[in-house]
Amino acid sequence: MNKILVIATGWHFSSHFYENMSKQIVPKGWEIDYYCVAHRTPDDKNTINEKDSLRESTAEDFLKELDQLMYKYPITTKQIEDFGWKFMLEENTIGDMECFNQWSEHYDYNKYDFILITHDDNLILSNKIFVDITDGVEVHKPIEKSRYGTHQFNTELVKLEDDWLFLDNGYNESLPKAFTPRGSFSFYKKELIDMLPNNKFNMYENGGYGIVNRSGETASIGYDGIKAWNTHAGTFRDFLYDSDSVERTRWLSNTKRVSKYCIEGERGFISNYRAGEDYLESLKNKLEEIGWI
Q1: Rounded-to-integer distance, Cα 188 and Cα 40, Å
Q2: What is the pairing mode between strands 114-119 and 2-10?
Q3: Domains and CATH numbers, the chain
Q4: Are 132 and 112 in contact (CB under 8 A)?
Q5: How far apart are CA 157 and CA 77, in angstroms?
Q6: CA atoms within 13 A on the CB side of 127
Q7: Is 251 in contact with 169 (CB distance < 8 Å)?
Q8: Helices (DSSP H) in the chain: which residue ranges?
Q9: What is the pLDDT of residue 224?
Q10: Taking Cα atoms as reference points, which of 211, 182, 157 lies closest to residue 275?
Q11: Is residue 173 helix, strand or coil?
Q12: CA separation (Å) from 158 to 151, 168, 187, 236?
């Protein structure tokens, strides 16, 4: 039996996310295990207070409407578990792929064919994520010899065969750091984890903003407060270069942060985006394409 592992970083606790990820259609011959590796609890006063004003307000635009959809109700630990997730509370050290490192202290990744590591402030748009991936959905592949600028590649559309190692949500070639993964909604083959030193992600590079360890803290501190965590996206990007894995990288869409499967939140909200000028238009186009607006 083939197996898929889903690990969500538990922090914002979107009720829509936990409910709709667990409703994914299971591909024939596959199993899916869901884990929430939380760094605070859903019933923490900060968790609830940070979203209460959104729930009590009138949406001013479609972005706020999407935010309200994500946080329709304050979800509880029991509800998360009832949706099929195993709940784990870990130290609030570093974000993104660190939740895999923490999970792997307790469990064996070797049982899984690939792993989805995801934030819990993502808006899930489809229940066919894993069906399409295992069936060979059309994806965007970098053309390695086309590299230009800092981290930019031309891409081509290909069918997702079994030769991929890293599959990310969205890519925008026009960005100077286009090839830098966000780590918000990303898929990793077991073979890629095998290649990592000690089979863990390097989350301890000391970048220009230093390292932020927030153990014991349960209040969100906005974009700049944990900007140091962005360093590790670059660390993983460099790993892809150094391990000759560029050709084995794929994207579900050619729109940064947006695919037909997922809209990535930014520090808890869709409306909180910091992206290029064409982001909002691309987001609207994608939602119109799938019939959401």
Answers
A1: 25
A2: parallel
A3: 2-289 (3.90.550)
A4: no
A5: 41
A6: 9
A7: yes
A8: 15-21, 45-56, 62-70, 77-82, 98-103, 129-135, 190-195, 222-225, 231-242, 279-289
A9: 59
A10: 182
A11: coil
A12: 21, 14, 17, 24
pTM (2 d.p.): 0.93
Give residue-wise pLDDT tens across range 145-194. 999 999 999 999 999 999 999 999 999 998 888 999 988 999 999 999 99
Q: In this structure, are residues 39 and 143 in contact, taking their beta carbons and an 8 Å threshold?
A: no
Of 5, 11, 6, whose CA–CA distance to 269 is shortest? 11
Burial (CB count within 10 angstroms: exposed 0-12, middle 13-18, buried 19+), residue 98: buried
Q: Is 277 exposed, middle or buried (0-12, 13-18, 19+ CB in 10 A)?
A: exposed
Read off the pLDDT of residues 176-186 as tens digits, 9 standing for 90 and up: 889 999 889 99
Please provide residue 190's backbone torsions phi and psi, each rounded to the nearest 5 degrees: -55, -40
As a whole-number percent, the residues of the chain with pLDDT over 90 amount to: 67
Start-to-end Cα distance in the chain: 39
Q: Is the dihedral of CA 55, 59, 60, 63 positive or negative?
A: positive
25-69 pLDDT tens trace:
999 999 999 999 999 999 999 999 999 988 888 877 888 999 999
Q: Which residues of 253-268 are buried (b: 16+ CB within 10 A; e: fewer)?
A: bbbbbbbbbbbbbbbb
Distance CA 50, CA 47 (A): 6
CA atoms within 13 Å, Cβ hemisphere of 56 = 6
Q: Which of 181, 164, 160 is nearest to 113 (CA)?
A: 164
Q: Which H or E run contains 198? A: none
How does DSSP assign 89-101, residue by residue? Answer: E------TTHHHH
